[in-house]
Amino acid sequence: MLALLILAVWQAVVPLAGISEFVLPTPWTIVKRIVSDWMLLFRHAWITVLEVVFGFGIAVLTGIPTALAIFYSRVFEKAVYPLLVALQTVPKVVLAPLLVLYLGYGWAPKIFLAFLISFFPIVIATVVGLQALEKPMVSLLRSMGASERQVFVKLRMPAALPNIFGGFKVGIGLAVIGAVIGEYVAAERGIGYLQMQASSRFDTVLSFAAVIVISGVGVMLFSIISFLERKIVFQRETAR
Fold it and tell me: How far apart are CA 125 and CA 71, in angstroms?
């Protein structure tokens, strides 16, 4: 409801204030441009989606094993944790030109940026989820003769899933940011590249349309993660 109110005010204020569409197009103008250039926007958005999915997928496949190693090995935790924190504090945009230098001009730097920026929240959320399990519950299972493997499968992992999916939700949004940053620096395709081209031609309407599509991609991928969470994770009633 708030979003509709903001759009209505935006639509009304722009012509009343005499603001040029070159400076700030109205929502209706942006919608018409999305409809008229939907094929162009879809073609570039599809490339960005693939970059995000591949980068995020690699982050999941490497982040969860890394979190398990951190949880089960104190030596690994002390060796790797500080490096992860240090890497996370580096603005990823400053790495993009270096990645182009080392990985080339194709898919690799965009996928790697999407992976890099989404890796840390997945690792941290998984570690926190594994550590959140109460020790008496683990002791109870062990007193009944359960092995560590059985404790992990039956108790640790199910209990950590809400945190893990929380990390996934954060990570997928960051992966979109990483892929678009890579497209800003070096790309010939992708929605970020299209927006850069629109800005260079002073096509403000298309630039806004690209922003809307980028947001739509993020919302779509976030919704997919939320859907999988509802199907996989036991839903506990939240306290409000």
Answer: 12
